[in-house]
Design a protein that fits this description.
With 504 residues, the chain is of the alpha/beta class. Helix content is 38%, strand content 20%. The protein contains 14 helices and 18 strands. The chain has a seven-stranded mixed beta sheet, sandwiched between helices.
Length: 504
């Protein structure tokens, strides 16, 4: 990536893999720079993710840590430059997004605006992320792994006050909103584990709740926070919660889940990773549609600018890794079970929201079509009709995303060659349908039935678990109700907390 430092390339690649091309924007610019230089744009932030109402601001810095000075002095100087200055950049980026959303550009010359709608400042949800480089070996020598430690009793400027700071330990930093601090290894770990916008933002929200709690919370590493998040599930909300019962009832806690190696050796974790492999087909589908929208290479469009198509693709991408696994498996099963040369459709409800649905449509390419153009035109019409029919038949469904492709010709399964054949998509948002639309869909339905293009279909229900091995078995130790004062101090001195940093 020309024009980027190694650290920026590292972060940009992580962003593109997790958030995908339509929503991941390295080095956005504002038209407030020096026009006498190459372009007149000034960088807003190192990496920005704009996904609906969520805006994730990344600022990264590489600052060398001095090993020749007293560790307290070295930490104070390093953290002020690496963390403090990044926090200032994020503060400026937030202000620009709120005040001048129409003046955000993807190029330094400020000729091309970002092709995504920026949320209104009253609706926008900021997530602030600082990534620190140049400290991995130092962290490994002071901790069991290359990770900061965490203690939420440390606040604001105390992080770089040599008389108040605890070296290599992060607490609460607010700049409008909570600021998440990662180092190179831990941001790579987190974005690998939470590799969709939905997963990542939810993890950040739970992480913020933990570290900004009024309870005194100490965590030995980022991997301990991840494992705490993985093993707790809120039955009422149907989602993950970082708060186990004993932590809710405690006044303070030390989070020690056994470290990174225990996570990587957990059988349930490994089984989940194996099952998630198919989910990346869904990512590839999103990327393929995004590529053709952004480059203007789609064969058929009903939009003039990419910004008009982005909400449709975002619907496809507003899914978690687990949901993508379910959807990708449903598509693969349908695609490979379909008999070569035959047409078929399948309706798949969104695993997390039964008001959303996906329609998969297979249409064979046979000799009755005079050309590829005629075949694609018929196929586009059919997926449009099938989406309308399914919306008519299922009044509980609000929005429908349809995907049409060619029925396979032989026994070959779903391979990368699938994308070379081209696919069509259609999106019917639920908020713009009136009764007349349902009546029109009823006419289409009746016509398809009369021509034998719609037959009675079976309904299949199944229960799928995110962790195939059942109980995750992550838990090892959460010391609560004041017991943490006998734990080794997080500063690495070897003394007990009550004799060191935790003394009254």
């Amino acid at each position: 990536m020309s024009g980027f430092t190694d650290e920026e390339v590292f972060l940009n690649n992580l962003g593109a893999n997790s958030f995908l091309r339509f929503w991941s924007w390295p080095s956005l610019f504002r038209d407030q720079g020096d026009s006498s230089k190459d372009g007149d744009g000034k960088e807003i932030c190192d990496l920005t993710i704009v996904f609906g109402s969520d805006v994730i601001l990344f600022s990264d810095k590489k600052i060398d840590f001095s090993t020749t000075k007293d560790v307290g002095v070295a930490w104070s100087r390093w953290s002020r430059r690496a963390i403090g200055n990044s926090v200032k950049q994020i503060k400026g980026a937030r202000r620009w997004f709120e005040q001048y959303p129409e003046r955000i550009f993807v190029d330094k010359q400020c000729n091309h605006k970002i092709p995504i709608n920026i949320p209104d400042k009253n609706d926008i949800r900021f997530h602030n992320v600082v990534v620190c480089h140049g400290i991995e070996d130092i962290l490994s020598s002071f901790n069991n792994e290359a990770s900061f430690m965490f203690d939420n009793s440390i606040r604001g400027d105390s992080h770089w006050d040599k008389d108040k700071a605890t070296p290599f330990c992060i607490g609460q930093i607010f700049e409008g909103d909570f600021v998440h601090i990662f180092n190179e290894s831990t941001i790579e770990l987190v974005l690998r584990e939470f590799s969709t916008t939905k997963d990542f933002t939810h993890y950040l929200s739970q992480r913020e709740e933990l570290l900004s709690s009024e309870k005194h919370i100490r965590a030995l590493s980022e991997s301990d926070i991840i494992q705490l998040y993985y093993e707790n599930f809120d039955e009422e909300t149907g989602g993950r919660s970082i708060w186990p019962k004993e932590l809710l009832e405690a006044d303070s806690a030390v989070i020690d889940m056994g470290g990174i190696q225990r996570l990587f050796e957990n059988p349930s974790f490994l089984a989940k990773k194996q099952e998630d492999r198919i989910s990346y087909f869904w990512d590839d589908l999103i990327e393929r549609f995004s590529f053709h929208v952004l480059t203007g290479t789609a064969e058929h469009t009903n939009w003039d600018h990419p910004i008009e198509a982005e909400p449709s693709i975002r619907f496809l991408a507003s899914t978690s890794r687990f949901e993508r696994r379910i959807l990708a498996n449903a598509f693969k099963d349908f695609y490979e079970k379909a008999i070569p040369g035959q047409r078929g459709t399948r309706l798949c409800l969104d695993p997390a929201n039964k008001e959303n649905a996906y329609v998969f449509c297979l249409v064979p390419r046979h000799h009755s079509f005079s050309s590829d153009e005629e075949y694609r035109e018929v196929r586009r019409g059919m997926i449009q009709d099938y989406c309308a029919i399914n919306k008519y038949l299922n009044r509980g469904v609000n929005s429908v995303f349809g995907i049409a492709c060619k029925t396979r010709d032989d026994a070959q399964g779903l391979t990368p060659e699938f994308f070379n054949e081209g696919q069509d998509f259609v999106f019917l948002p639920g908020d713009d349908w009136e009764e007349n639309d349902y009546k029109e869909a009823e006419k289409i339905h009746n016509e398809y039935v009369s021509h034998g293009l719609l037959v009675k279909r079976s309904v299949v229900m199944e229960t799928i678990t995110e962790f195939p091995e059942g109980d995750s078995g992550f838990r090892t130790k959460i010391d609560v109700k004041g017991k943490d004062r006998n734990m080794p101090c997080i500063c690495g001195s070897g003394k007990k907390i009550k004799r060191c940093c935790g003394q009254p």
